[in-house]
Amino acid sequence: MRYSKTLIPTVKEVPADAEIPSHQLMLRAGLMRKVASGTYTYLPIGWRILMKIMNIVRSEMNKSGAQEMLMPSVQPMELWQQTGRNVDYGPTMAHFTDRHGRENVLAPTAEEVVTSIAAGEINSYKQMPMNLYQISFKFRDEFRPRFGVLRSREFIMKDAYSFHADEKSLDETYKVMYETYKKIFSRCGLKYAIVEAESGEMGGSGSHQFTIPCESGEDVIVQTEDGAYAANIEKAPVDALPAAAQGKVYKSIEEVHTPNQKTIGEVCEFLKTDAKSLIKSLVYKSGTDIILALVRGDFEINPEKLRSAVGKSIELADENTIRTLTGAEVGFAGPVGLTQKINKLVIDHSVLTIEAGITGANKTDYHIKNVVPGRDFPIEGKNIVVGDVRNAVESDTYQGKKLVFKRGIEVGQVFKLGTKYSGKLGAKFLDKDGTEKLCIMGCYGIGINRIAASAIETMYDKDGIVWPINIAPFEVIIVPAGNSEQIIAASESIYKELTDAGVEVLLDDRDERGGVKFKDADLIGIPIRITVGAKSLAEGNAEIKVRRESEVTKVSLAEIKANILRIIDKLKNESV
RNA sequence: CGGGGUGUAGCUCAGCUUGGCUAGAGCGUCUGGUUUGGGACCAGAAGGCCGUAGGUUCGAAUCCUAUCACCCCGACCA
Q: Which end of chain A is more exposed for a tag (fewer CB within 10 A), N or C?
């Protein structure tokens, strides 16, 4: 490709609305331009990068035995109503009414469509396992698009869906996908971490996230000190803190007037005490059930953990429910005397570290103190669960090992879905024994744009991007430093020789000064640069420089090709 | 959706507090010349409905109101 014929609009100045390195560099290097909040046009070299990533994903998926297909971006709302996910996604799912008055959604993902295909076309255990995937645009009307391509509204996702006759088969494919993902991210030249994850909105059991550790990441990942265990913050388990000694005698509970002191902070301030002696009480609903969750005042309830403790989806109760339940304004709920009125009491371990604590009195403007867990409210029994339902914090341990917190960009996730979708959409098959069963499913996503962005986040320097060779827009850039006939002739000859050898070469044939070309080459981040200049050319040489290294090597024109091929080979093998 | 902020040349921004004649700078673009290995220099030029709509005023980029867009923090989220 000739630079002069390509649109690569690099800019010197940092665009005003870009904060993180990948966003700034993708704009500065001319990979893309914003069209509206959260939507971007990918310009020629930006698109080349995405296509390279897609091709890596495609080749590894195909090797794994999955089959590529394509599903529509516009899907009938009806399908989403059948699984109820139109409600789960809520306003994040964009939808519109067509001219016939039908509701359509802009697909944020494709479980519904693929499962309805399976419902129609997979009828026998003999057809499974079956793994179908697509690489396509997805649309999510995010509350807040940000960080350029890291959280955009429109993005490219590879989404795969597997169908199985039994759990064992799902486990096998899950494992194959897990290994395939490792290969994909390695080939993209990324240093990734695999963490255990909650399956969240997708439903199901068992999930791993592939994340790229870096400062700009939106996800918090938690690892044990030795790295043996890693999970995201939604999942990360913690060891129970040592429980308070039993059997001591404490004063009986006593009401204290706490006018208008609703939050933990306010109560602590008002009563001159530590959040560690407060029992935070939160009211949740699950359908018509009412659930009271308790956690020590200095911790946060983790909704995902609470949900798995309850076994059903949950939501915070509204003010009216709380008023009816406690007989008090929001902010004064407590477990004492309430256990008969609720369907389930979930107590985080941390509460049991409290010997005699403070909690809401279920009476507006009052709290009670000297509350002893086990004496003043039950800590065991029917409909009472004691467990780990809070967020991990930095001082926590798991399996006795200290926890370390990092940020990461989620680039892929694998889920075991089970029968959540096949059940609702009627994806059934006849098994060996002649009985009809639901297909068991897995699903596997990869964010294509996020791979590009996280590669930049982890590989850039003051001059620009430093692409790993497998996803670089070009492998080699030739910079003629000068415009003499000899320089141009030599550059053209190298360009032809390498292009003929199958190397992806960008020839900077612009009528610009050397400095401009060097700056652009570095900014765009092409892994290998060949400089053809008057001095070295006089000696029959050109210069080779690898972007991420500082040395410049002089190589005779005759040996350029062999050298370049060797360097490319080396760089490619490093990233595998 | 709550809080904060910004909209002025293709890009980055000044001017607005305290209204005043022709609205500026740097970068980029175009022309000519000198340059030519790390974003050159000189001379000249083009480029603006000051986000949009109302209002106040003799007069509005500047003050007021509304509205739209974008950014940041929060809540939410593969």
A: C
CA distances from A169 to A130, A442, A443 (A): 10, 10, 14
Is-contact A469 A475, C-beta < 8 A? yes
Predicted local confidence at residue A204, as pLDDT: 52
Sign for the pseudo-dihedral over CA of A419, A424, A425, A429: positive
DSSP 8-class letter at A373: B
What is the predicted pLDDT for the residue at A126?
97
Measured in angstroms, what separates residue A538's CA from nucleotide B35's C1'?
A: 22
Task: Tell me the pTM.
Answer: 0.91
* C1' of B26 to CA of A519 (Å): 20
A548 CB contact with strand B at below 7 Å = no
CB atoms within 10 A of CB A251: 9
Confirm whether any atom of chain B, the nucleic acid strand, is less than 7 Å from CB of A10.
yes
What is the per-residue pLDDT across A218-255, written as a single tens digit (0 to 9) for each?
888 999 999 888 888 888 889 999 988 877 888 899 99
Q: Give the DSSP letter string of A389-457.
A: -B---TT-EETTEEEEEEEEEEEEEEEEEETHHHHHHT-EEE-TTS-EEEPEEEEEEEEHHHHHHHHHH
| Residue A201: predicted pLDDT | 47
Cα gap A345→A379, rounded to integer Å? 9
Dihedrals φ, ψ of A262, to 5°?
-105, -40
CA of A292 to C1' of B38 (A): 66
Å from A24 (CA) to B6 (C1')?
A: 18
- Determine the nucleotide nearest to A554 by Cα–C1' distance: B37
ipTM computed for the complex: 0.93
A109 touches strand B (CB under 7 A): yes
Domains and CATH numbers, chain A: 27-71+110-236+405-456 (3.30.930.10), 254-387 (3.90.960.10), 467-575 (3.40.50.800)
> Strand B within 7 Å of which CB atoms in A 487-516?
513-516
Q: pLDDT per residue over A94-145, tens digit each?
A: 998 998 999 999 999 999 999 999 999 999 999 999 999 999 999 999 888 8
Measured CA to C1', the nucleotide nearest A202 is B78
- The answer to whether some atom of strand B lies closer than 7 Å to the beta carbon of A473 is no
A227: number of CA atoms within 13 Å, CB side?
3
Residues of chain A with pLDDT under 50: 201-203
CA to C1' distance (Å), from A18 to B8: 20
Closest to A195 in 3D by CA, of A181, A184, A183: A181
Q: Which residues contact A90 (CB under 8 A, 6 or more apart)?
A: none
Dist CA A519 CA A413 (whole Å) = 37
